[in-house]
């Protein structure tokens, strides 16, 4: 038997069903090698996919997709599913490596039911599919696939509790690879360990305590064992958990050895050496915090499962000791917890990705802002960006902008960022959200903020007639647009760094309107509900014209960042042109 | 011993500690009678407070508040705590019945640590207090009090999982009265039942499976038993659950018999007969749904623990059968689930309070909107209103306004509401959020919407120079302001019902600017990020003036609605005056 002849003949799930057990084993190994080759080049979720090859093969062997419906949590483990459902070339043909999303995407295939990129949603979505089926009188199997890391998220736990109330078919395939992105956090993980060590027979069973039927499969990377386990639960009339034990990163030494690093592989073209030398806000922040911690035992850094990606490296964590806490995937808990820490005398700094902060609107409002506790939240990966629409960071300004009491700052330079951070950590009066810029720009001027100066806009360049307000990361663009106008129109354009995006610097705005006819705002975020619209409303009854530049309200999926910029007129030339047209 | 002499001498926790066991029993009964008298007059959370009298007395007897810190979930059971911590007169002196908030409020007392009114937050907040304590090297006890209803919320479950990681003192007092607001929902409640029936020795223990220490106390309304249980766990060095079994509504026959009704008592002055006769959107909706369900088995009504308050009465639920589902306190799950139901052919209608929809920003965005599934969400109790700041409904327009793909409608009349609902349930292309108006206004014109007309603004009165856009509930106010201007300024003011608050009717706006100099927007919601700011931004570069009327960004706590209206210029006279001043 030739080693590569099985994958070659797989064009859809029916071909998987036609394989013998031996062929399925070979197929799994071929898929694993294809994944390693492809993800090494493109980057992507390496560890989670390598661990879930056999289970995916077994799922498609036993169940009948798309009649039977799979819902993949985060869907960062769905590469094998894509290979088996007509999208093989995205993993085997280098010229098509970028043809498909890294997540399930209904527009790609009838085998994908949801666009998914956030964690902990699969059980609830699958429960909905099951309810829909029951209303129509259908009989298909609904299968939610969820990893152990995702299980700590509130939505998943609400889902477990409610799934148990279905008096009908729902299979929750619990893919336990003993890892979240970083180490798992929380009491449930001790229970999962006990379940693994006892072959599912531990004294207390987490899943049974939620009222679910339960099966344990130790050999989560053996396709034949998985097939017989899945056949046993197929067409079950009860919500049932199948707990399988898999090996994250299986087949790739470095990913198995450092599972945190192996979670997400950088593309081969990525210049790690250059990256390591680059000054980055992640490192600046970690250094700042470690220095603070040395002299102040009440400073504490908080992460929700993404410490490494926000600069809280394993080295940082070792040094910080008890002054670091990872809550796992539990952003809601994190925001409430930092409110409590601040209330009881601590100085918490929560580092979070913009897109995941979306989980916490109510906690930001009720647990934190309403109580005015002095916690700091650092928002990473803000901005319109390109990439997958599930991870877009363009909503945070609007999200935070409608919550009273929170001070939202968007520093533009290294010095402003560090001054904002220092001020925020030491002040006692406000919850503060700082939008961390993406590229470090330094003007060398050491500055310090106090309660008053932190929220004031700064005039970067004083001119007249036209003013451009460039918020945070958008300040360089505002400057470039001003330069373009200076040259072509021959006016001296004012440039302002507004700094605070949650309340307006009315003194400055009143000053500006005296000798400016047009005020433009530029922000790296959605227009609707954003900073610019507050400015437009403030000047609503004044003769001064206002133009807002920012992101249109639209989910941009895999649109190149440059195209999004042009589409939104977020280039210096297009901004200058629009302004020029309105000055006529 | 005189029956009323104990409560008289209680001025703070120290006085509780000075009581004998017999006196504590009398005290508990005196408090219970005071609660019944007071809540019967004022309205409020009756059942939860009556069940938690003895436990609160025992807490203050055993622990040393405010050094030891209590965090009450929802804090709707904190009345006895208020009585014992210097706020007795709010419950014993009729003229002071309205002096204190119905929730814990730090500005009232050093014994309250957080303003709390949403569910499922206590464990995370308390974990934060414990972390803060540990950073400072403190030794106080931290006690979270949480009911069984609140335990199903994602934030509480994230909290449980993380609380277990504390290697220090945290006591979770689990107040199990076998009820949420309505019946509890979910698999965990079967486990709680088993724990109650076995005296805490069931085969699987929900709390132990989260890694927490656990004690069971059956006699949750016996003060002496509770004291000895609390003394056992005081100063524990491990996160520990004390599961107590209490009787919701204890001491009040009607509240014990109908626990759902007894959860929240209406004030004595409330005219139930008039209320029953009133035409209300809750009833209109329930009738609409039942009629739909008769002919269409795929229609399903969804609630998250508040069916009664949104008109999905016990009678409705009995009639709807499988076409109704209560997910308990689990709003995140609800939104993901309705996305799944819609994806698999169902027609879900989720009824939710504005304030609780805040829990679901990310689910609205990722699970629902990104997938464009045709689910309907009906938002009740929207608007600036008065009352407690924790339940304010003024944020929903801004919240939803920044999420792509969702169509948000704000009908103003009975006919528009029913047309919007009919259209939403039957269309297949959009997630739709309908802001349910508060007072039924009928113009008798039967109408129907289609995909195009549903989102179009409607000119209510055609004039010139000045136009007022009154969104949904604010339309009557817009009309009154227009009338006031018609009389005093002598112009014929245009009045517009914008209907859709998530996208702008640009044709209409372009038409308006041709013959209007000033356009005012009026909305019953926060200004920041709201509908009016979108209008101001749209006209930013036009000469037309824009004035936005709505709620300032501020937590209004127990401010009378009329004062809030005046403060925000949300009266016909003040709107007319502002407009007049800007027309000069």
Overall description:
The structure is a homodimer. By secondary structure, chain A is of the alpha/beta class. Chain A has three domains: about 5-265, Rossmann fold, CATH 3.40.50; about 275-455, Thiamin diphosphate (ThDP)-binding fold, Pyr/PP domains (Rossmann fold, 3-Layer(aba) Sandwich), CATH 3.40.50; about 460-584, Rossmann fold. Helices cover about 40% and strands about 15% of the residues of chain A. Chain A has 27 helices and 18 strands. In chain A, the strands form four sheets. The first copy, chain A, has a six-stranded parallel sheet, sandwiched between helices. In chain A, helix 5 crosses helix 12 (about 225-235), helix 8 runs parallel beside helix 9 and helix 23 crosses helix 27. The longest helix of chain A is centred in the first third of the chain and has 22 residues, at about 20-40. Chain A starts with a helix and ends with a helix.
